[in-house]
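Section 5.1 Outputs to date
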Amino acid sequence: MRSSLTFSNVSGRIPAVAVRSRLWQQESLLLIGAVGAAAITFRHWGIATPLVVSGVTLAFGAGRRGSLSLAAMSAAAAGFVHFAVAPEHFAEWWGFGTFFVLCGEAQLGWALLVRRAPGRPALAVGSVGSLLLIALWAASRTSGLPFGPDPGVREAVGTTDLLAIALEIFTAASCAWALAARRPTALH
């Protein structure tokens, strides 16, 4: 059976070139976001850090098309943000610092995993994990966390955490998109 060079949508068929162009635009925007994340979170280290972070983030997304690439890139970028803010959270409480290091490791590890094994379980873990981080962040900004040095005290909303949340929302949405777009038999 010969594969078609078009994709279907609600209003008809879209040429494959248009889909690839759109994916490249999305990946470019995400890469710009990763450079911005690095510039904001590692600002005292100069221009080299955003360039390295953007290169590594692009490498996480390279070789995968569409939502898998976007999910891997956004998760990697969020992981870098979590590593960058870990020292200030260690200064607040060792438990918060440890949490941010573990989040960064989990996000980078997941970005590598989804490249090697892009199946339903990996996509579900990426989506659910990102949604849990979003929920925890929302709780910390609305009612405060029930543990730590100041239980029940709301945290202030900052630029860096908004960036991380945006990347996590993007990761969850990209995973959901990939899960919805794939037939159950196409994934192992």
